[in-house]
């Protein structure tokens, strides 16, 4: 038996909004620790991972690990039927269920909606993702700042360079109509309301596709802050963490490399 | 401008 109840649907709605433009379908892996998924986009440029830890849920029960193959567009359609303050309960049989049940209940518990989502058999490989890699540079910034930088720059062109030196990050773009750049310095005071922190072991300069950096702005409502981790020649890791360590959405983006 | 790489060389199947 798998049963998981979120107090408010907002949490899962936001997480799905952050991943559904990158992944069409994925296995949601349920274990005693929580709900997680990982999937690459079709061109294998971006890997998206998501975890909702068991502590994110008001009720969480997973007797046996199970994998629910879900079409992201379909689950999003069903969750549109939940008001943001409605609770969401997901129920599935852990013995080869062919559908998962979604129950939405309003705050006064006098309106209860039931939906069944058909599950799919999805053949997906689990990839080994190195944890806590020794990154050359890590920058943390308010997620609203992230949205502004990459929505602005990706309008100019799709080749965005991130260069991080001591205490400064430079984001630049080259496009058909021209180019642009933006420098962001580490904020001086720890009391600053919207701090930018930059930790550099070695300066790093890498180029990435702007289309993806802009797509990741869909995760901004998840988290007040975002962390970008860079190592020359390796994928860029971007993390949006849910409050209270309830989980995260992480993206790994392949760099553009010199020919 | 650089060529877009893919992730297949970075993340191996478990």
**Overall pLDDT confidence of chain B:** 84
The radius of gyration over CA of chain A amounts to: 20 Å
Q: Whole-Å distance between the termini of chain B?
A: 33 Å
Helical residue percent band of chain A = 10-25%
Global outline of chain B: rod-shaped
SS strand fraction of chain A? over 45%
Q: Structural class of the secondary structure composition of chain A?
A: mainly beta
Order of helices and strands of chain B: EE
Give the strand line-up of the largest sheet of chain A: 6-2-3-4-19-18-17-11-15
Poorly predicted residue ranges of chain A:
none
Low-confidence stretches of chain B: none
Query: Mean of residue pLDDT of chain A?
Result: 94
Write the layout of secondary structure elements.
The complex is a heterodimer of chains A (259) and B (14).
Chain A: E1 2-6, H1 10-19, E2 25-31, E3 34-40, E4 46-53, E5 59-62, E6 66-71, H2 72-79, E7 87-92, E8 99-105, E9 112-118, E10 127-128, E11 137-142, H3 143-156, E12 159-165, E13 168-174, E14 179-185, E15 197-200, E16 204-209, H4 210-215, E17 225-230, E18 236-241, E19 247-253, E20 256-257
Helix pairs in contact in A: 1-2
Chain B: E1 3-4, E2 12-13
Question: Overview of this structure, please?
Answer:
By secondary structure, chain A is mainly beta. Chain A contains four helices and 20 strands. In chain A, a hairpin with a 5-residue loop joins β17 and β18. The longest helix of chain A is centred in the middle third of the chain and has 14 residues, at 143-156. Chain B has no helices and two strands. Chain B has strands at 3-4, 12-13. Chain B is rod-shaped, with a radius of gyration of 10 Å. The model of chain B has no long low-confidence stretch (mean pLDDT 84). Chain A binds chain B through residues 40, 43-47, 125-129, 159, 174, 207, 209, 234-235, 252, 254-259, and chain B through 1-8, 10-14. β20 of chain A pairs antiparallel with β1 (3-4) of chain B, so a sheet runs across the interface.
